[in-house]
Amino acid sequence: MVPFSDSDPTELSSAPTSDAVGPYSRPIKPIQRSKLTQAPADIRSFFSSTTAGKPSGNSLHRDNSKLNRKRAIPPLTQLTLDISNRPTTQTCEACGMPYVIGVEEDQVIHAKHHRRVVGGIEWVSEETERVIWRDELKKEWIVKVPLDSKKSSKMTKKVKQILEMVNVSLSARELSAEQLNDSALYLYLGENDQSLNSKKRRRGGESYEGKKAGMVMVKAVCVAARIDKAYKMVEEHGDQNKEVIKFGEDGSAVFCSRVSQKALIGIHRIWTSPTSRGTGLAHQLMDAVTRTLIYNFPIVTTQDRRALVAFSQPTESGMKFARKWCKSTCFNLF
């Protein structure tokens, strides 16, 4: 029996005395207070450590690596899941330009193009232009502007702006400098319609200031050039005996005969403002082109139009117009 003092309980943690009773007595180890106050989980871990084998160094390394991976996880990012049925690519009803929703670059280009098409591009007359047709009221007229880059012109920037707008509207590539030098630009001009003018409009999610009444605006555009040959469209391309040329992509491809024929006028671009479509402006513009592009050689009959005028990979709406203007389902391509 080991004598305990009746003194204060804190003496339990004091060191034992040297005069212990009994021959087999051993020094009493001091009882640590922390041992008495530990949670039961520590006791279970104590007994489990005496019965279970010691963990290997590899398992400890794996546990530490798991902890390190958990600590290295970056903070979460808030994402948005769009489960709507609307397509990612939309075509603006006002300006006709297709663009991808949510792509900042596409939205910036669309906003710029939308302002030009819906708001209109103003035209200021200059000496280099040539008026080739004017209506009786003198409110609408057609001018011919040379595109030769060697000739300096105050309207070079304006012409570039117009061509850029037309290319975007038709999803067409830019014409090369050589092609432009050999071409002429025809513009259908007219005074701004007061009924379409307003202090401020909002179409297609884009706000812009309305143009002042009386300004001369570009309503239709045509880029035409002299050519030497063209290829006649064919309706059937499934006949293996026929050799054909494919123009355009698979979805909108057209097929022409491999045998070329003589042609004189090639239409690179034909475009009408959305607010002026269905009013015959493109038809009037084409008539002016075929009458005046070649000096002293007007092309006026339907037969000559089919034989001597060709179009450059027209869009779906362009093909409808070409068929209507040529009065034939098959026309020439170049």
TrEMBL record:
N-acetyltransferase ESCO acetyl-transferase domain ranges (all copies): 262-332
Subcellular location as annotated: Nucleus
GO molecular function, one term: zinc ion binding
Segments forming domain N-acetyltransferase ESCO zinc-finger: 78-116
GO cellular component, one term: chromatin
Keywords, sorted A to Z: Acyltransferase, Cell cycle, Metal-binding, Nucleus, Transferase, Zinc, Zinc-finger
Ranges of compositional bias, category Polar residues: 46-59
Main location: nucleus
GO BP annotations, alphabetical order: mitotic sister chromatid cohesion
Residue ranges, annotated region (Disordered): 1-69
Pfam families for this protein: Acetyltransf_13 (PF13880), zf-C2H2_3 (PF13878)
InterPro entries associated with the record: AcTrfase_ESCO_Znf_dom (IPR028005), ESCO_Acetyltransf_dom (IPR028009)
Similarity comment: family membership: Belongs to the acetyltransferase family. ECO subfamily.
Name of the protein: N-acetyltransferase ECO1
Native source species: Cronartium quercuum f. sp. fusiforme G11
